[in-house]
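Q: Hi! Curious about what 3'(2'),5'-bisphosphate nucleotidase CysQ looks like structurally. Here's the sequence.
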Amino acid sequence: MSTIRDDHEVARDLAVEAGQQLMRLRERNGFDEPEVLRTLGDRVSHEFLFSALGRLRPSDAVLSEEGVDDPRRLSARRVWIIDPLDGTREFGEAGRVDWAVHVALWENGELAAGAVSLPAQGSTLSTVDPPWLPEERPAEQRLRITTSRTRPPDFVRRLANRLGAELVPMGSAGAKICAVMLGIADIYIHAGGQYEWDSAAPVAVARAAGLHVSRIDGSGLTYNRSDPYLPDILVCRPELSGMLLASIRNVADLDNAGPHAGA
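A: Let's find out. The predicted structure is below.
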């Protein structure tokens, strides 16, 4: 790969190649020792991506879930934010396809490029060619909210009950946001805390695809901060955002009011 390659293509190609390496690792090792497989997956993908970015973009900083945080990134103009294996639990389970590789570029305060590879699903969504978002969803169709398959937050359950929505359990945050882009779900909401690498790449692609992306109070998402922790996130079709933000406020108000609220 040439160092003059377009950033969008670099993000896509590196995510794809890392995903292919992870698929081969799964095939070679099998699933008899899932923790060993997960540890290998995190390490192999991180080492590949970190090395490739060092070669292709030597002047850029890197923030990786699996790497040591380099404080120089805070003064850098360009920072690659990567999650070498998002959905590590699912990666170590036979038959699971809801895991991903995230590669994003933050530049001058904004996400500039991104790619999410879903290797076990045989697809990659990226800012090279953002997915097409259907203009309308059927009005009679029940809303679908992607949520954690192992740790579904009570807040999301209460919101789903208020909206009469269906919960769609999945693993990786990237897989969940991609599900919204692909029309498998309508909403991804998370209020249990995550980190910048969990969402940077899928958020970059979701924005390019025309989805609404924000904190659950409607404020913007910011990246490459000194503390990479992100408390919450909302990704949805744009026409749903106003209704959802109002519903989220109502659920939060009831939570804050205590057990007798609404009686």
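A: A fun detail: Helices lie at 7-29, 34-56, 88-91, 154-163, 173-181, 196-209, 241-257.
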